[in-house]
Amino acid sequence: MLTSVNNLQKQPLNLLAHAYLSFGQPEITVGNLISDFVKGKKQYDYPAGIQKGITLHRHIDSFTDASEPTRNAKEIFRPAYRLYSGALTDIVYDHFLANDENEFPPGSLFRFSQQVYAVLEQYHSWLPPDFARMFPYMKSQNWLYNYHTKPGIEKSLRGLVHRSVYLTESDTAFLLFEQHYELLKACYDQLIIAIKPYAKQRLEELLAS
Length: 209
Description:
Blueprint: H1 15-20, H2 26-34, H3 48-66, H4 68-81, H5 85-98, H6 108-122, H7 129-140, H8 143-146, H9 150-163, H10 171-179, H11 181-208
């Protein structure tokens, strides 16, 4: 999505959402998570199931970007961060998903994170080099689980700034996140209701093709 302000194209920002919207299917999970690292025709270098996960990721991003809740969430960050508002919105969406007890009942988020890492290890030979280099940090620091904490999100925001060329600080983003917490949560609540059945339908169509 437009989070890719070019230099961020190889930095997936909503890992938890893409893992979750793979609906427990291993190859779909792999493709959904590595999609931002796979450009153009390189998609067809992968097994069919991973290819479908890559395609599903792109459907999810397009739906998310076009949705009214996401447009509203971006406006919170846009004055200070302009094109990076989408990247920041992605990060905070993972926070609200991680804390959504309808999707992750108490205790289940940690188990889910470990299941995802196990899948990625099983398919390690298919991970693009940049993702493979990132994966040990993702696992050892348990990024998927730590999205549920505010310090975890603050760290993710700092990471975004570190990877970007034009951003110099993330303190403003975290302050906006805290100041507009309920509004951002409302945007997430509206999006998850719509995107979960959408992603499920797209996946069923991909698996049937």
